[in-house]
Amino acid sequence: MKAHDGMYIGGQWRPAAGPDTIAVVNPADEQVIAHVPAGTAEDVDAAVRAAREAFPAWAATPPAERAAGIAALRDVLVARKDEIAETVTAELGAPLALSRTVHAGVPVLVAGSYAELAASYSFEERIGNSTVLLEPVGVVGAITPWNYPLHQVVAKVAPALAAGCTVVLKPAEDTPLTAQLFAEAIHEAGLPAGVFNLVTGLGPVAGQALAAHEGVDLVSFTGSTAVGRQIGATAGAAVKRVALELGGKSANVILPSADLAKAVSVGIANVMSNSGQTCSAWTRMLVHKNQYDEALALAAAAVAKYVPGERVGPLVNAKQQQRVRGYIEKGLAEGARLVAGGPEAPYETGYYVSPTVFADVTWDMTIAQEEIFGPVLSILKYEDEEDALRIANGTVYGLAGAVWAADAAEAVAFARRMDTGQVDINGGRFNPLAPFGGYKQSGVGRELGPHGLSEYLQTKSLQF
Ligand code: NAD
What we know:
The protein is of the alpha/beta class.
């Protein structure tokens, strides 16, 4: 696609208020592929005004009509899926096969789910002598990261529109082209002017202005815990609603009765997918002491298939590459042992990191506590189930996880004791309707399905 040099506000592309731009870089070859405008507080203000103006009519639009608008959006995403996949590959670096199936495919599922939910959801309920109206919260300020550039946008915009809210989006500075393509899709789908608005720009400038804007009723943020904390404080001071989808350090718990080979190979695939840039990735594999050596051998064989530049793409930018290599060095310095990979970059060009597996990791090491956001797995040894539970729950995060056992009931019994928002049982499939979000410092609020929709609604009770 061709980059736009303006902002999408009030149903049209308008010139940016300031002259600054952001260079978009292809992380596979480090070439600048486009420039987009770096928005200012002035652009954010114009976008919020457009969203406010559009809100009353959109909120009053019957849910079936809102559903039709979201269905039309889904159809455009389907029609333009090849272009979406190519754009994500160009600015994120994901292998094209992953961009096609996941980056372009999942948003179609999620948009489709909200087209159905908008039509079927009950925006009114009876409780005793009351009728409770579920009304849209208002103008949403959405701030998204680069790791799933379209999914993160659709997971906010589709439920917000289904609820009757209007939106201003500030996407990540590394992946603005996918966001511009999404704005084109909104336009092509014929959604009313102002219900969706896009301001590209830097986090501390445009993102901060959006989070703090008094015309925004709800801030929905996905990104790092550090920035989330700041946004939560800003929203709290203004008594504004906030949803935070933050980092994770999820545990993949392999109980002794499990199919070890399958659990290890799915566990490796989970961490290497999207170059490890997945907030819900199972970056700690927990294995019983009697099966530890066997698991290490299986892991070494499985990770060898993940060749950088083929199945594994680069990291998104040079800073992330340096950060992840720094964590690998820290792991070695703290006494962990390399089973595969290491801190050296595999190629001179492109922000690649070698798929890395660590053994002899203890729960308190930095690499077992902090989110790395790269293709790095730590394998930890546990003594018994209580020890496994203590390790699994022993971080500040609680976003996702996995449990493997001979039968589902045994795995479920363990999963019930995990402090985390999502658990895959014996490799369970992705469900676009299941609530997604964190316990503890992984966040506040839920996305996807009916739980995700309810984040954008507020209640009004009428007593009779
Ligand atoms: P980030 O927090 O740096 O940036 C996320 C977004 O916030 C970007 O759009 C950025 O421009 C904006 N931003 C940055 N500073 C801001 C500020 N002061 N005020 C307002 N907005 C600001 O995160 P990142 O590096 O882009 O993404 C990686 C992180 O996101 C990881 O920690 C990862 O776990 C997390 N993440 C979480 C989820 C989830 O659903 N829980 C999903 C994806 C990523």
